[in-house]
Amino acid sequence: MVREFVYSARFQRNFKKLSAADKEAAREKLALFRNDPFHPSLRTKRIQGVPGMWESSINLDIRLTWRRGDEDGVFELSNIGKHDRTLKSP
What we know:
Order of helices and strands: EHHEEEEH
Strand content: 25-35%
Mean pLDDT: 91
Strand order of the largest sheet: 1-5-4-3-2
Shape: globular
């Protein structure tokens, strides 16, 4: 279970660039994520070649990258945006 989110500057900047519909979808998925980061609708998986980094789906086009923080229950949200662009620089 997630106790706290830590947002990177890049995540904050890219979240602002999302459309209103994508922002709403992201908020809904983050609510699911807060209860279970591995909820089936998030399709969470490790990012190959980047140790400790994970990706979760917001919708068919938008991805969220994250890693577990140093403290239990803390998750660092690294990036959000279009699939290819976000996974190119997680």
